[in-house]
Inverse folding.
């Protein structure tokens, strides 16, 4: 992609992630010349007081586009399956938040704080860069400094995933259903698999190989690809919780070498995109309501396992729509713009 | 304690757990002759349509009592610290749900499905039996069959703990605060450490040694005592979630021998007090809303770690006020009554 002072950008999809992409482009002052917003149907939308005219996605819509950000969809094939190649053919760099291309060998899977160099490979390959899954992104940002210091052998992670990870309808369902329950009415799940009001359930995505969900496998396979180390043993339990936005993760890490927890803490303090919130005496640790609307990954409860000198725990929280999706995608685009 | 056809029972405390003790005694048809309800202040209360006259706790109140169930309190010393010895002196067997005596060597810590024989030691010792912490109880019920089969080496657990675990005020706060947030008003934490409406936080109990919370240490030390095996490495992250009642636990277990997952499943099917709900294809797994009001421990998501033949995951849910507190205490009393 040629260096320019400003770029023609397309955002494909205006669901929870697409809207955050529009926000992230504006808030991060991405050098946009023309912005095109594409979706299945034409309409006008408003985001934070700004109006956008949504056009229907079509191959020709990518004419003249430099960077196409695909928001992806939950649980079905994203628009990138149909349109990514069309956009690339017309000269666009595609950054896809959907799951369709993430594990393909000629598509880099990128978290800019972790493996920025991989992004450049897209220009020689398919022209597509994949954005990892929300729960993977925040975890690898936390794992990378630990892996560099003490070589990670095993990761055991339990997630606390917000409703908005399943789309804006699911986020609305959390609120509407909660009000129903408070008013003594029935809780009827529609966008989510189960009742979410004052409830939680270990089911995100579909059930697959070895009785793990697709969400749990994403955390394994995407992390292997991003860290370039398929030997790390990773195992996850993913749980949907009654929070609107902001995923939490209890991450237990076994290293190959004894852990110096002060060195870990120092590494996080210096790591780009990481904010350490870890002052238990003052009841300070990351929480979803504090992470919402923020671009960073928040890490706290940093502590060694008293029964294993090579193991530690981290509590990792990030806004699943921003760092977990839109922000990361825009950051990938920034890799091609800056310097 | 002499065998009788009916027993004089005292329940001390009428908070969330005390009320469930009254319920459990009635629902389980415990052979009660006279029931005395004690608390800090005298008053009349109603539980499920039945009226109880609450008397003020005092040493003499235990005169003639055969079994005294202390409900315990959150975050402060329980009434058992003051009155357990007085009750024992007057001939009562004390079963204490509080945390004060749990780790004392001459006080058995009992989960009837796991270590019922330990209960008998109370009669030769202090006359006190301690009820474990809610999050410990449901975990050890799940661990015990696995430990018998494949010898557990390490347990890594992340909890999803309901508001009612912090008492009835905290449960009410969840509802009131959630309504406030839905109505656009502020969320002001009072009974809990942080905002609980649509939020969660890794802070249960106080912070102590090695930056672990008291709740996290309870899961380590109580499990060691109940399973009679302090060599098992146990490490926990405890998280409060916006659920009223019903704790969830993502439990990762490393064994000394390779795991036969069908044998684990069979053992759970046969284990007393366990209900297996594990049919992912039909979206069936344990959830807090289904466990509420039930006496059993619900286990699902039973699966091996594909990257480690000696490791498995369990998803464990139980009603923290019932099996996690009141039911377990009444079951301990039943050990002395039955057969």
């Amino acid at each position: 992609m040629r260096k320019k002072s400003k770029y023609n950008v397309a955002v494909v999809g205006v669901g929870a992630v697409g809207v955050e992409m529009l926000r992230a482009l504006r808030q991060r002052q991405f050098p946009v010349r023309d912005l095109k917003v594409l979706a299945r149907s034409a309409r006008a939308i408003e985001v934070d007081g700004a109006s956008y005219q949504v056009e229907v996605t079509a191959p020709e819509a990518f004419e003249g586009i430099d960077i196409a950000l695909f928001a992806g969809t939950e649980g079905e094939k994203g628009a990138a399956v149909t349109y990514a190649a069309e956009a690339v053919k017309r000269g666009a760099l595609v950054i896809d938040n959907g799951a369709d291309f993430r594990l393909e060998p000629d598509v880099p899977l990128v978290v800019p704080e972790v493996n920025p160099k991989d992004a450049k490979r897209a220009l020689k390959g398919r022209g597509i860069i994949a954005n990892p899954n929300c729960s993977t992104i925040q975890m690898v940002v936390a794992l990378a400094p630990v892996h560099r210091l003490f070589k990670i052998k095993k990761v055991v992670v339990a997630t606390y995933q917000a409703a908005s990870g399943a789309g804006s309808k699911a986020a609305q369902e959390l609120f509407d259903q909660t009000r129903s329950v408070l008013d003594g009415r029935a809780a009827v799940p529609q966008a989510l698999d189960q009742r979410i009001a004052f409830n939680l359930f270990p089911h995100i995505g579909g059930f697959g190989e070895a009785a793990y969900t697709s969400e749990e496998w994403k955390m394994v396979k995407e992390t292997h690809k991003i860290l370039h180390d398929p030997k790390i043993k990773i195992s996850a339990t993913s749980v949907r919780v009654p929070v609107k936005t902001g995923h939490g993760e209890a991450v237990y890490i076994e290293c190959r070498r004894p852990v110096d927890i002060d060195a870990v803490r120092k590494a996080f303090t210096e790591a780009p995109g990481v904010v350490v919130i870890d002052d238990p005496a003052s009841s300070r640790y990351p929480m979803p309501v504090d992470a919402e609307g923020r671009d960073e990954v928040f890490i706290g409860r940093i502590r060694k396992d008293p029964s294993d000198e090579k193991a530690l725990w981290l509590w990792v929280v990030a806004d699943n729509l921003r760092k977990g999706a839109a922000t990361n995608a825009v950051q990938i685009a920034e890799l091609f713009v800056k310097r």
Summary: The longest strand of chain A covers residues 308-318. The domain at 7-132+325-335 of chain A is CATH 3.40.50.720 (Rossmann fold). The two ends of chain A are 14 Å apart (CA to CA).
